[in-house]
Amino acid sequence: MSPLPEFDVLTITCPSRASLARITNKWTAMVVTALGEKRLRFTELRTAVTGISNKVLTVTLRDLVRDGLVARHVYEEKPPRVEYELTELGRTLLDPLEALWRWADEHTGKVLAAREVYDARG
After folding, report:
1. In this structure, is residue 29 part of a structural domain?
2. Structural element, H or E, at residue 10
3. Residue 46: inside a domain
4. Is the overall model pTM greater than 0.90, yes or no?
5. Phi, psi of 11 (to 5 degrees)
6. What's the number of domains the chain is made of?
7. 52: phi then psi, degrees, rounded to nearest 5
8. Can you give 75-93 as a three-state secondary structure string?
């Protein structure tokens, strides 16, 4: 078995950049958080992630399924039912995302204040 390659996200040719770009996309982060530990249908996800369009949600889910972060379950019913849930790999994102949400909750006031100061300097 060959050794795993070393990844360096700061190197332009490193494939880990694509993974970082995917998970730091705002819609990806919100969809992963909305799924949490449960299965949701498309419309439930769209309701949970306010402001996301059908097209963007479709593309985001397709990318997450492709990357192995979300599983898509299709049920042979009339009409067909489709549900999405995080895979084991996808669930590994929950703690880091929770830390980011916590940081945003704790520091958004300071960020907004800094913007006001910056913008006032014109």
Report:
1. yes
2. none
3. yes
4. no
5. -90, 130
6. 1
7. -85, 135
8. ECCCCCEEEEEECHHHHCC
